[in-house]
Design goal:
The chain is an alpha+beta fold and 136 residues long. It has a single domain (5-125), classed as Cytidine Deaminase, domain 2, CATH 3.40.140.10. Helix content is 26%, strand content 29%. Strands 1, 2, 3, 4, 5 and 6 form a 6-stranded mixed beta sheet that branches. The radius of gyration is 15 Å and the shape is globular. It binds zinc ion. Residues 56, 58, 93-94, 96-97 line the site of zinc ion.
């Protein structure tokens, strides 16, 4: 799919927030989600100080939007800062986030793979997804 100006806005929102709140241990990724209303919600991921109770940026951004009354999402993008490269880049959502995002329908995920920016329906990133009704 073609990367649009709206997609670039989403990437910029995530990048701007990460630039503002980046913390080497706590906030290495930021995500931005565009809701059906057109509004963009951005959030950072939260890495746990103890244990493994991290919250991914994608889940944080969607949670923020849902808490503001949003129910439908068009697209989502996440950006991670790589200190050794001294730059940030788009990242693909983890498996848990792919399932979480897909729970909101055909959301487009903007990510980077093999050196190119891609945009795909989240369901394409989650083949043979769990279905509570079985393989009916
Ligand atoms: Zn995740």
């Amino acid at each position: 799919m073609i990367i649009t100006q709206k997609d670039k806005e989403l990437i910029r929102a995530a990048s701007d927030l990460l630039r503002k709140l980046y913390h080497a241990r706590r906030h290495r990724v930021a995500a931005a989600v565009r809701a059906g209303s057109g509004k963009i919600y951005a959030a950072v991921g939260i890495n746990a100080n103890l244990g493994r109770c991290d919250i991914c940026a994608e889940a944080a951004a969607i949670s923020k939007a849902v808490s503001e009354g949003e129910k439908i999402f068009e697209s989502i993008a996440a950006v991670k800062y790589f200190p050794k490269r001294k730059r940030s880049a788009l990242v693909a959502p983890c498996g848990v986030c792919r399932e979480f995002i897909s729970d909101f329908g055909p959301v487009k995920v903007i990510y980077s793979a093999a050196g190119s920016v891609r945009k795909e329906d989240v369901r394409r990133l989650l083949p043979n997804q769990y279905n509570k009704n079985g393989d009916a």
